[in-house]
Input
Amino acid sequence: MIRIRTWLSLMATLWTTRAQLRAGAFLPATQNFCWRTSPGLYEDVTSERGEVLTVPQVSRGLAWADYDNDGDLDVLVSNCGGSPVLLRNEGGNENAWLQLRLVGKKSNRNGFGAFVELKYGEKRLVSQVTSAGSYLSASDYRVHFGLGDYQGKVEITVYWPSGIRDHLRELQPRQIVVVEEGSTNHPATAAEARVPG
Ligand SMILES: [Ca+2]
Output
């Protein structure tokens, strides 16, 4: 198992290009990349995230999951002709976070397609429940929100595919919350009836 230190903002596995194939290459190994979000741009932090990321691999699939349920996202990378690599995030949980696992009743069981809106302070985050994102890979379908150094409580609205809305207030970060469809019996207002964009 390979361990990395901090949160990954964006990570990519690189494939064979047409130019490489025309040049006679067959499954050439290439380096994968990791970028951290900065205001207005992405910053290449590959070399800071562990030696394994600098080793050329014939990587294909990439799946995100908080596999150890400690609040940070970990990554599994599959490699052609080689073992998968687990990138375990061990940077510590200095920043706040919140995860939600949706349990559908009228909608599908895992809540796929539902939008989740989180409000903290004056800010707002929106995510959609999905496990898609990389080639032949299924990521954790729980919704993960990173909240930085925010110390207060948060407010959540779940927009289920069925049209049902669930609304949870005064949630303390740093926990995994299970939301069952229709459990809050929250009557959607006109403003809440729209799907957040
Ligand atoms: Ca984790």
